[in-house]
Write a structure and sequence with these properties.
The chain has about 425 residues and is an alpha/beta fold. About 55% of the residues lie in helices and about 5% in strands. The strands form 2 sheets. Strands 1, 2, 3, 4 and 7 form a 5-stranded mixed sheet that branches. A hairpin with a 5-residue loop joins strand 3 and strand 4. Helix 2 crosses helix 9 and helix 9 crosses helix 10.
């Protein structure tokens, strides 16, 4: 079977009753949010606390793997994630197989077949997916960070002439998405001029419609892919040699018999109820977000690790380039050195910017500040925290500090670092 024929079968099968599939995807996502993600987040935070890291990056994975408790937690995270992924995808594949046979669908039967399929997939080869997910953790980071103290790891720095205001800022390195904002926000801009009090609600309703619409479109695309793969697999099974078949391959793309008029009405009613509840809930939440944005201080532009078009990240040329580009504040990372001092550096290992397999925690401040970092055809020396602060004071450019952890910090890290951050009043 060719891919276009498989897509045709997927299209016909899916669009006979798309509501059922969207509701199934929605139900599995709700279960994922309520059950799986909280467990994964809790276990991931346990890993961070146990290893003393703020997040898991590729240059720190070896440090994590050396901790037995962290290894067990990562393994459990991967197992939970694999079960969740398999549960959702197997459910869709079982439904697709039923519907392409034109069979009636019973919840109990589907659940029984899903469980049976997952048990068959509990094979030693499944360990490969677990290893894959563990390696994927540094990329996603599961939206989790860990605070060094109750105030958090990000600390605005007081400087001469700098106002102390909350930081709600877009990233200077990631501003291209704003090119089309005027067109997207035209209705809200209109209400800002004509009826300002209605703007938060209009923005919330528009955002909710976009979120729900994106979910429905994504769900239908996922279903189409599952249906196409199911059609191709069933065609392959039909042509498979009899000696390799465990069960008879029954291939049918007949008209569906499970979509009765009554069931169609029930599905429409249930879908309308779910969409109404989802839309109302997200609109209320989004409205509160919009109100908070209106009440907050004016948004500022944040230069992430300086302005990297003008210098290597977290170096003095990048700081100067951020000031020249008009940034309102610069975000930078600080790490403790072997001798208890501080340098401005994001990575715990210097391989990415220097090509040398050196760890920040194994070098003194004097050794680190003599090392040259390179990126984008530019180069500069690693700055000490004192050098960074002095230049930011000269530029009259407020800063946003993030303390990066490498696992070898002294217990009094924050008290010793704090005096360095206060510029002259």
């Amino acid at each position: 079977m060719g891919i276009f024929r498989a897509i045709g079968i997927a299209h016909r099968t899916t669009w006979r009753s798309p509501l059922l599939y969207v509701l199934v995807v929605g139900a599995t996502q709700v279960l994922l949010v309520l059950l799986t993600i909280p467990v994964i987040r809790l276990l991931y935070q346990l890993v961070l606390v146990e290893t003393g890291l703020g997040s898991i990056a590729y240059d720190r994975i070896s440090q994590v793997l050396r901790n037995p408790l962290a290894d067990i937690a990562l393994l459990v995270i991967a197992v939970v994630a694999v079960i969740a992924i398999l549960g959702e995808m197997v459910t869709l594949f079982v439904l697709a197989s039923h519907h392409q046979d034109g069979e009636a669908t019973a919840l109990r039967l589907v659940l029984r077949q899903v469980w049976g399929t997952i048990k068959k997939l509990a094979h030693p080869q499944g360990l490969l997916m677990i290893v894959y997910l563990i390696l994927l953790l540094p990329l996603g980071q599961l939206w989790i960070d860990v605070d060094l103290d109750k105030e958090g790891r990000s600390t605005p720095i007081r400087q001469r002439g700098a106002e102390q205001e909350p930081v709600h800022k877009p990233d200077l390195q990631r501003s291209s998405a704003g090119d089309h904002l005027p067109e997207c926000l035209a209705p809200t801009i209109a209400t800002d001029l004509l009826a300002p009090t209605a703007s938060p609600w209009l923005a919330a309703v528009g955002l909710s419609a976009f979120q729900i619409g994106a979910f429905v479109i994504t769900a239908l695309l996922t279903i189409m892919i599952v249906q196409s793969l199911t059609a191709m697999l069933r065609d392959w099974l039909r042509r498979l040699n009899e000696d390799h078949r465990q069960t008879p391959a029954v291939i049918s793309h007949s008209e569906l018999s499970y979509v009765t008029a009554r069931r169609e009405h029930v599905l429409w009613g249930l879908a309308a109820l779910v969409i109404a509840v989802a839309f109302t809930s997200t609109a209320v939440l989004n409205h509160q977000t919009m109100v908070n944005l209106v009440d907050s201080e004016q948004t500022q532009v944040l230069a992430h690790r300086g302005f990297i078009q003008g210098g290597v990240e977290t170096t003095l040329p990048a700081l100067q380039a951020a000031a020249k580009a008009g940034a309102d504040r610069v975000e930078f990372d600080v790490m403790e050195t072997k001798d208890g001092k501080f340098v401005v550096m994001h990575d715990t290992n210097l391989r990415r910017l220097t090509g040398k397999n050196l760890n920040v925690k194994d070098l003194t401040q004097d050794e680190l500040t003599k090392i040259t970092v390179r990126a984008g055809g530019m180069e500069a020396k690693i700055p000490s925290l004192e050098e960074w602060i002095q230049l930011s004071i000269q530029l009259n450019l407020p800063q946003l500090l993030e303390i990066k952890l490498h696992g070898g910090e002294s217990p009094d890290l924050v008290p010793r670092c704090s005096p360095c951050l206060i510029g002259p009043e």
